[in-house]
Amino acid sequence: MEQSTSIKTEEPCLKTHILFEALEKKPIFASYQSFCKKVGQDTMSYPDFEFWWYRFYHGQPVFDHDRSMDPVPKTLMDLPVLLMRKVTENFDPMERSVLRRVNRAMKDVVDSHPAVFEKIEIKSRLGGLSYRLNNKRTVYSRNGKLEKLFKIPGFNVNHLRLYNDPYRSEDDLIDLLPGSLTPKSIDISACTAYKIIKLLLIAKPKHLESIHIDLLESPQVVGPFSRIFEAQQMKQAKFVEVESFERLDVEFLKNFQQVRNFKMELPRYTSERDLRRARDIISTFKGFEKCELQIFDNKIREFCEAFGEVIPDGPSTTVYHRYQIPESNEYLEFSIECDSYSIITVIKSR
Amino acid sequence: MSSTEQGTSSAAPAEPTTAPESAAAPEVPESFYYVHGKDKVVHKVSAGALQHSALIHGMISNLGYTEEQAKANPFPFENIDGDILQMVVDWCNQHKGKPTPPEDTNLPKQKEKLFDLVLAVNYLEIKELLTYCCKQVAMMVKGKSPEEIREIWMIPTDAEDEAAEKEAKKRAGKEAAGETAAAAGDAK
């Protein structure tokens, strides 16, 4: 106790400590923390420590320099606002949320930047809510962390992924999210059409380019799919992909009648008859541009038999088929690429 | 690094030495200009290096100085410390005619110097260097808690700010009252 008091009051003793810290060539803040651990938190302020540390670091171990004539040191807040703004451009929105808590002036500078995150993934599971920002590690949302994030002025996200566990019945994800966001893409995994619609409506259709929907339950549990496709978001998106816990049959294609470009998976049992049915359904779509149908089986034989094409003898794994849409000068250009699975691409042409 | 000499903004500098030029010197002789900071030390810098500074480049273009006139009239930057101007001149020389790299790791680590450099570079309108400097300031702030940021950068809390403001107002009020009383006394 006696020694610690003497260390605190003896300036040369403190400076000797700083000198040793500087000689260790550690980062300055780590040096300060180490110094505080030895002599106590309130012994010397960081700016004073920094002054001596840099002198010693640059080989000027003069202990009796008179600082009274030195100019008043500048602080971060002495920088003009425009420069402060330029400095804070180098922070991502999450890092800026720390700066907001420094003081009001800093908060004003930080809030002048739009808080646009590249990617946010939010999961509502039995264990609670968790989130991932820009592919960083997953964080469990405690003490309203996520709510605080959404309260950042100008909050937005380019790619939003929402996962609602089928075993979690609460609507906490829906309740938590802001009323509307303008993501470019949204990826929803949920178990009922009701939840999917609710989550989808959060994204404004004008900005939404891509929608990915993962149905976590069988179609019977999910409920009326057609309601999902009635949303403007589905009609205006440039691309829609639907995946399902249970493979969706060819009749599901009817739902895409107002979608321009889509992707879905057909079941392994898809027959020649199903493929012809798929062609007939797609040929009725007015605004259709392109789609991709995946089947986890080699369906080249069924494809050729369905559309009257010759089954290739050799190693060729791609077959083309052109179909004129009845009473129209438009065509559907089919191609099937097969390996252990098949990818059927359909493009509308004139 | 450019060599320097003592001089004044009004007096013509006595032959400052030239900054080292690259081996592949251009055929047309390059023009040089002279700048000095608060310490009056004159730096001879090529027009090519000074192109980084939009402010000086604009001055050069408008003035149309001859070599002799440029020598006799160094550009005075009284608001910039000599050592900071030296850093700026060195940076301009090092990056003369070269594409600027994505990062610059040779910037000062000491806050005071870095702030002075940021302000000088902002004044001289050196866009790339300003970007590096601001990034360097940001790197020094990143990863710290709000309390640590306040401690390191001497930023008052809102409560401290308000108290200081109140105190300043009180002092200003007292001074004004004192002046009024003195003026009344004089009038009597």
If you had to describe this structure to a student in words, what would you say it looks like?
The complex is a heterodimer of chains A (350) and B (188). Chain A is of the alpha/beta class and 350 residues long. Chain A is built from 15 helices and twelve strands. In chain A, strands 3-2-1-4-5-6-7-8-9-12-11-10 form a twelve-stranded mixed β-sheet, with helices on one face. Chain B folds into two domains: 2-155, Potassium Channel Kv1.1, Chain A, CATH 3.30.710; 157-188. Chain B has eight helices and four strands. In chain B, strands 1-3-2-4 form a four-stranded mixed β-sheet. Mean pLDDT of chain B is 80; it is low at 1-19. The A-B interface holds A 28-29, 45-47, 50, 54, 73-80, 82-83, 86-91, 95, 98-99, 101-106 and B 109-112, 115-116, 118-119, 122, 130-131, 134-135, 137-139, 141-142, 144-146, 148-158, 161.
Q: Topology of this protein?
A:
The complex is a heterodimer of chains A (350) and B (188).
Chain A lengths: L1 H8 L1 H13 L4 H12 L6 H12 L23 H8 L4 H7 L4 H8 L4 E10 L2 E6 L5 E2 L4 H6 L5 E9 L7 H5 L8 E6 L2 H8 L9 E6 L3 H4 L2 H5 L2 H5 L2 E6 L16 E6 L5 H12 L6 E6 L4 H8 L10 E7 L6 E8 L3 E8 L1
Chain B lengths: L3 E3 L25 E5 L4 E6 H4 L3 H10 L3 H6 L2 E2 L5 H13 L16 H14 L2 H15 L4 H7 L5 H30 L1
Parallel strand pairs in B: 2-4
Antiparallel strand pairs in B: 1-3, 2-3
Family (chain B): Belongs to the SKP1 family.
Pathway (chain B): Protein modification; protein ubiquitination
Protein name (chain B): Skp1-related protein
